[in-house]
Amino acid sequence: MNDSAETLVPPTADRWRPLRYAIRAPLLVLLALVSGPLALLALNPVAASIRVGDASLEKFMIRWWSGTLVRIFGFRIRRFGQPLPGAVLYVANHVSWLDIQLMHSQRPVSFVAKSEIAGWPFLGWLAARAGTIFHRRGNTDSLAIVMARVVDTLKSGEPVGVFPEGGSGHGDRVGTFHARIFQTALDADVPVQPVALRYGRDGRQDPGVPFGRKESFFGNLLRVLGGPSLDAEVHFLEPVAPTPDARRRMAEESRARIVQTLGYGD
After folding, report:
1. Separation of alpha carbons 223 and 98, rounded Å
2. What is the pTM of this model?
3. In CATH, what number is assigned to the domain containing residue 86?
4. What is the pLDDT of residues 88-101, one digit of tens each?
5. By residue range, what is the domain housing residue 247?
6. CB-based contact 95:197 (threshold 8 Å)
7. Among positive and negative, which fits the CA dihedral 216, 128, 71, 198?
């Protein structure tokens, strides 16, 4: 979440909001009730050995749960392009707390996320079980440990997702990408694939989805839960060529491709 946002977009008069709550809230409660047993069933070594189509039962359930959650909030998931297979470092712009679930709905990924998420009720526990790598922002020692874990995960053949901006924004621009995290892809010798995320209609980001200034997680959750139905877009873009002598160039090129896809100005 980003506390630097200037304003919280006030909800406009919307007569359909109570009806959306009446429909979506029970579905969200039902998903929460069944999630615990499902997680215990699916997120364990035995489930990892059971195949469902082209994925393990564990990964199939993560994709199903994540996609269901995004849809309960009224979003229609729209994918453009294909995620690279195998070990890959996905780098995405950060708009909402739903970003990880949106990505998981397409391919389960071990995400690097802020340590505060670990304390979120149920979602924090589920994120940890799904392989999230937690990072204490501003802590140099934590970053070194995180980067070592990312390299190990990539070398084991698993994908990792990161938000190089370091925090979520307003959704109207893409912040500077921090280059240091791109070193993990070089150390593990894996490709980097930029991913553009957007929530809105007609190719426009809805300003009501990102966090507002000092808005809490629960405040944003409740506001989005009652909001209008929107598209949740995930664009898997062309991979960025590795440049061992210039990870900054990799970061800038990844950001440029996302900016171009979303139609934002620099």
Report:
1. 13
2. 0.86
3. 3.40.1010.10
4. 999 999 999 999 99
5. 74-262
6. yes
7. positive
